[in-house]
Amino acid sequence: MISYPSAPIAPTPLKAAPSAFPIDSRYVAPILITLILAIGQFSFGMLENLPRTMLAIGCSIATEILLSYLVYRKFPHLASAYVSGISCGVLIRSTVIWPFVLVAVVSILSKYVLRVKGRHLWNPSNFGISTMLFLAPALVASLTQQWGNTLSPMLIVWTLGSVIVWRLKRLHICAAYVLSYIAFAGLRSLLPNHPFLAELAPITGPVYQLFIFFMITDPKSTVSGFWPQCAVACSVAAVECVLRLTGNVHAPYFALFLVGPTANLMEIALKSRRSVPSAPLLSPQ
């Protein structure tokens, strides 16, 4: 009787260990930004006008749906549009309604128009806010509300924000920017009439929490690599320092507006150069 070798038994694939945070990473930013907004609103009344903030969110989501259907013929994931809308609605101040509509529409539109080789050049909300602050300074201002003298809201935001951004593997970007900001605040304090605590104070406000945790860490508009990302964050802080010395009150937005796309274009050009095959050497006849 002839026996045949049995087929080898395929090894059972190992199951991945369950995540400590079993939530879709795309929902992390919306959850955190909503938390920051809730803390700021219930603690200090950070929102100037809730209906206008909701209007910005609605316009952002509607624009995202329309453009995604026109360009890609599909329904988009709306987490990014929600973050852009709520950022625009919270971070700008105006006595009229139309800036809240326009800033949301412009922010989302930039994602579909201002692209190079399929990549965003600007963080959408940073582009929209910076554009409005530059083009309509008489009608649009940025959020200036502070947390007050209570440290507890800041500790909550910093702790949860750090944990969530660490999970997304982008905490080093926040850390590089914060450390650079502190260093440049120290340098500015060497000048007359620039006390260190006054130079350091802005980073403790809600504006900077949204800026640090969302704008400079946006995966779609940041360069790749640990050290390049840290270098860009430090560069944003350096340009912001220069703008602050010139008296620009919107320094963080404009600094990222200038540095972010410049870094992205440099990376795109470098990758394109590396991908071009070299000409073959001609053999002697």
* Tally of separate helices: 11
How much helix is in the residues? 55-70%
Low-pLDDT sequence parts: 1-21
Classify the secondary structure makeup into a structural class. mainly alpha
Based on Cα principal axes, name the global outline: globular
Major sheet details? 2 strands, antiparallel
C-alpha termini separation = 68 Å
Residue-averaged pLDDT? 83
Query: Order of strands in the sheet with the most strands?
Result: 1-4
The percent range for strand residues is under 5%
Strand tally: 4
Q: Can you give a write-up of this model?
A:
By secondary structure, the protein is mostly helical. The chain has one domain (25-271). It has eleven helices and four strands. It has a two-stranded antiparallel ribbon. Strands 2-3 form a two-stranded antiparallel sheet. Strand 2 and strand 3 form a beta hairpin. It is globular, with a radius of gyration of 23 Å. The chain starts with 27 loop residues before the first helix and ends in a 10-residue tail after the last helix. The relative contact order is 0.11.
